[in-house]
Write a structure and sequence with these properties.
- By secondary structure, this protein is of the alpha+beta class.
- The chain has a single domain, classed as START domain (Alpha-D-Glucose-1,6-Bisphosphate, Chain A, domain 4, 2-Layer Sandwich), CATH 3.30.530.20.
- The chain has a seven-stranded antiparallel sheet with strand order 1-7-6-5-4-3-2.
- The longest helix is centred in the C-terminal third of the chain and has 30 residues.
- It is globular, with a radius of gyration of 17 Å.
Length: 160
Amino acid sequence: MKLEGKVNITHEPKVVWDFLLDYKKSCKCISGLQTIDEIPPGNKFKAVVTGGMGAVKATFTIDAEFLDLIRPTSAKMLIYGKAPGNVVKGNCEMILNSNENHGTNLEWKADISITGTIGMLATRFIPSISKKLTDEFFECVKNEIDTEEKNREIINGSTL
């Protein structure tokens, strides 16, 4: 299943990039995340995430790896995860461009495959659930970056 979207963030691409690629910061925005661990040298991660629909949920152990990192404009990620009776595989890509307001236009694409019980039950609903989850993720990202930048301004004495 192919998914894609665009989001505008009111901070420059470097700020957005730094936030998204700092898993200790961006993981706060991942719905259902239970744990995440970095696998050295730093482009691989292992996470435990609970997902599903309604009463049908599963806890996935997911391996993720960043590839083709071009700071601060693009990144790709491969994911593979398992839960009892379920498998998720996918690749994701994000492209960050400056906009005329010194902010960031972020475009993302994902090609995700879910097999097993959740895949069979959720086929019709995955696009709408994915949209809801990505909207929530990027709203959280915006809020977290806004808070981080406001705190930085206060510390640096830029605002009263």
